[in-house]
Design goal:
Strand content: 15-25%
CATH class of the largest domain: Alpha Beta
Helix content: 40-55%
Low-confidence stretches: 179-189
Largest sheet: 6 strands, mixed
Structural class: alpha/beta
Bound molecules: guanosine-3'-monophosphate-5'-diphosphate, magnesium ion
Order of helices and strands: EHEEHEHEHEHHHHH
Number of strands: 6
Strand order of the largest sheet: 2-3-1-4-5-6
Radius of gyration: 20 Å
Length: 278
C-alpha cells in the first residue's frame, strides 16, 4: 500500500440488533457468528481497501467505528461522530421500525452534528426475506431516490453485497475529500424519554473517556470494566453501575491523583443518585 494512502473514518449507525457488528466482522475478517455480543460504547476496526480502477485506483485505510445503537447513549454516539467522513446507516429489513428509526433518529442526528457527509443506506438481513424480497428491493430503491444516495440490501450472514456497501462508501469519501462540508442547522427532533440509568451509563462512559483524553483509548477500558461490573447496557441496574464506577476509579489510580479520582467518583455517584443529570 502506498505511503500516501488516505485515511477515512466511517461509522455504522442504526438501532441495536440490525447487524452493524456482524457487517463489520464480515467485511474485516470475512466471518459470521450467531453469538450476539452487545457493543459497549464504541469499537474501532481497520481495513485497507482499494477503490477505483487502475490507473486511477487509490488505497484507503478505512477506520470503521462500531457505535452502540441503544437509544439514550447520545453522549457516546455524538462523541463517536466527531470527524466522521462517511456513514453507513443500517436497518434490519425484517423490522420496519428500524428503518423508521434510521430515517427519523439516526439520519437527523448525523446531519445536525457533522453535516451531509457521504452516506450509504444499508438494509441488512436480506437472507431472511422470502416473498417480501421484491417489495423490499423496491422500497430500498425508493430510499435511494429519496435521499439521492446509494441504498443496498446486504446480508452479513451470507456476505451478499457487504464488501460492495463499504467500497461504495469508500469511493464517495474519496470523491468528497477536499470538499468542505457544511453543517446544517437542523432542529433536534423530539426525543423519546430516556431511562435515567441509561443516561447515567452514557454520562459515565463519556466522562471517563474525556478524563482519559481519548475515546479510542477509553472505550476499551470502559467496555472491560462495564462487563466486569455486569452492566447490561440495554437496561443497566443501579447496582451494576455503582460497581462500574468503583472499577473505573480503580483504573484511574494509574493516571490520576487521589483528589481527582475522588472527585470523578463523587460526580458519577451523584448522577446515579439522580443529581445533576441533564
Ligand atoms: P448490532 O451490532 O447492530 O447490534 P449484531 O447487531 O451484529 O450484533 O447482530 C444482531 C443479531 O442479528 C445477531 O443475532 C446476528 O447474528 C444477527 N444478524 C446480523 N446480520 C445478519 C444477517 O445478515 N442475517 C441474519 N440472518 N442475521 C443477522 P442474534 O440471534 O445473536 O441476536
Ligand atoms: Mg453491535
Amino acid at each position: 500500500m502506498a505511503d500516501e494512502a488516505m485515511k477515512a473514518k466511517v461509522l455504522l449507525l442504526g438501532d441495536g440488533g440490525v447487524g452493524k457488528t456482524s457487517l463489520i466482522r464480515r467485511f474485516v475478517v470475512d466471518q459470521f457468528s450467531d453469538d450476539y455480543i452487545t457493543t459497549i460504547g464504541t469499537k474501532v476496526s481497520k481495513k485497507d481497501i482499494t477503490v477505483g480502477k487502475p490507473p486511477n485506483d487509490m488505497d484507503i485505510i478505512m477506520q470503521i467505528w462500531d457505535v452502540l445503537g441503544q437509544k439514550g447513549y447520545g453522549g457516546v454516539q455524538e462523541t463517536a461522530m466527531k470527524g466522521a467522513q462517511g456513514v453507513l446507516f443500517v436497518h434490519d429489513l425484517t423490522r420496519e421500525e428500524t428503518r423508521r428509526s434510521m430515517e427519523e433518529y439516526w439520519m437527523p442526528m448525523v446531519w445536525r452534528l457533522v453535516g451531509r457527509i457521504p452516506m450509504v443506506i444499508v438494509g441488512n438481513k436480506v437472507d431472511l426475506l422470502e416473498e417480501e424480497r421484491i417489495a423490499s428491493h423496491e422500497y430500498t430503491y425508493y430510499l435511494q431516490e429519496k435521499y439521492d444516495t446509494p441504498a443496498i440490501m446486504t446480508s452479513a450472514k451470507s456476505g451478499e453485497s457487504v464488501e460492495g456497501a463499504f467500497k461504495v462508501l469508500g469511493e464517495m469519501v474519496v470523491e468528497s475529500a477536499g470538499v468542505t462540508i457544511e453543517r446544517l442547522a437542523l432542529v433536534t427532533p423530539p426525543q423519546e424519554p430516556v431511562d435515567l440509568l441509561i443516561r447515567v451509563a452514557d454520562k459515565i462512559m463519556t466522562d471517563f473517556c474525556y478524563q482519559l483524553g481519548s475515546v479510542d483509548a477509553g472505550m476499551p477500558v470502559v467496555k472491560r470494566q462495564f462487563e466486569r461490573a455486569g452492566v447490561d447496557v440495554r437496561a443497566p441496574s443501579a447496582t451494576s453501575l455503582r460497581k462500574a464506577i468503583e472499577n473505573l476509579a480503580a483504573v484511574e489510580n494509574d493516571f490520576k491523583n487521589a483528589e481527582e479520582i475522588a472527585a470523578n467518583k463523587a460526580r458519577r455517584l451523584a448522577w446515579l443518585e439522580g443529581r445533576d443529570v441533564v
